Amino acid sequence: MSRIGPILLSGTLLVLAACGGGSDESTSSAPADSEVTDSAPATTTAPPATEAPAAPTTAAGVVEGATVIVANGNIVGGSAGRMSDALALEGFETGTAVDGTEKVEESIVYHAEDATALAVAETLAARLGGVAVVPLPEALPIEGEFTGDVLLLLGNLQADKSIVELSGATEAAGVDPVENSGSTVVVANGSGVGGSAGEMTTQIESIGFTVGTATNSTAQASESVLYYDDGADDATAVKADADALAIALGGLTVLALPDDVPTDSGTLDGDILLVLGTNEAGKTLAELAG
User: Fold this and answer.
1) Dihedral over Cα of 269, 270, 273, 278: its sign
2) Does the pLDDT of residue 1 top 50, yes or no?
3) Backbone dihedral region of 198: left (phi > 0), alpha (psi from -120 to 50 degrees) or beta?
4) Closest CA to 94 of 120, 76, 114
5) Contact 226/252 with Cβ under 8 angstroms?
6) Which of 40, 41, 171, 276 is most buried (most C-beta within 10 Å)?
7) Residue 282 CA to chain centroid, in angstroms?
8) Average of pLDDT values for 75-98?
9) What percentage of the chain's residues is helix, strand, coil (to nearest 5)?
């Protein structure tokens, strides 16, 4: 049950690239990929990786500072646009999806030869399960002009798979799945750390919760807070889910959702709202639970 009200909380508006949907009308401006036939793909071998300048990274990786372009290098039409949407939800800066000129089984991440592009490429490769990272070649395997810093040639093995599935986030979380009734959890970034709401959304999904599209909080917070919709049809079950999630996140405060919902839109497209604070941003569930 959504609530609408004026935004009374003050604070700094935080920028978070968050989009969703499975259609090719990508909110990251990624159009539908050209129709791809079901003919057997020709396999391309990734060129050997070369050394590039090191860049400082955080435990969560680097997702900002370089534009990622996804190219369809597989037989699944529209998959580049959908992957572009998923990466934007993770906090990556994405451009318009394009078609590749070749088919690959395993995805390849190409990067411009600068420290930030390399750091973003390595973070992206890790989120995809550890695919190859190599410098951009002179002849790019795409149709049209390249307008980014990092190019993901999306292969058959990664096409139309979620980031959670590809990254092995369930195993990496180091915590057991949390029993819940199916309440939808939305994470709002109140931390000041770009991309952290998308990363937390992925982790919450990995332990069995249904998640909505990450958004921004209307105020910056140091400590995270969980709100539940006490006007939902089954408010008791929603409260129980919020309590279970609060424990998984290290014992957060759980409150009834206020009339003035602390999100950019002033509404909640879900049942539970996590306003992610600075103290929890960029941490794994295992760290928070410990």
Assistant:
1) negative
2) no
3) alpha
4) 120
5) yes
6) 276
7) 13
8) 93
9) 20, 15, 60
| pTM assigned to the model | 0.50
Helix (H) / strand (E) element for 273: namely strand 272-276
Q: Is the pLDDT of residue 7 over 60?
A: no
Ordered by where they begin, the domains of the chain are 15-163 (no CATH), 169-289 (3.30.70.2390)
Q: What is the Cα–Cα distance from 122 to 137, expressed in whole angstroms?
A: 17
In DSSP terms, 109 is beta-bridged to: 133, 152
- DSSP 8-state class, residue 135: E
Residue 74 CA neighbour count, 13 Å, CB half: 22
How far apart CA 124 and CA 126 sit, in angstroms, is 5
Pairing of strands 225-228, 272-276: antiparallel
* DSSP at 259: S
* Lookup: tokens for 247: 């424990």
31 CB contacts (<8 Å, ≥6 apart)? 24, 25, 81, 96, 97
- How far is the C-alpha of 219 from the C-alpha of 266, rounded, in Å? 12
251 CB contacts (<8 Å, ≥6 apart)? none
Structure-token match 């004026």, residue found? 6
The size of the chain, in residues, is 290
The secondary structure of 57-119, three-state, reads CCCCCCCCCCEEEEEECCCCCCHHHHHHHHHHHCCCEECCCEEECCCCCCCEEEECCCHHHHH
Kindly report, residue by residue over 255-265, the tens digit of the pLDDT: 999 999 999 99
Nearest CA among 128, 46, 30, 121 for reference residue 80: 30
Tokens of 171: 């195993």
Structure tokens at 16: 């978070």
Two tokens, residue 288 = 């928070």
Residue 189 is given by DSSP the state E
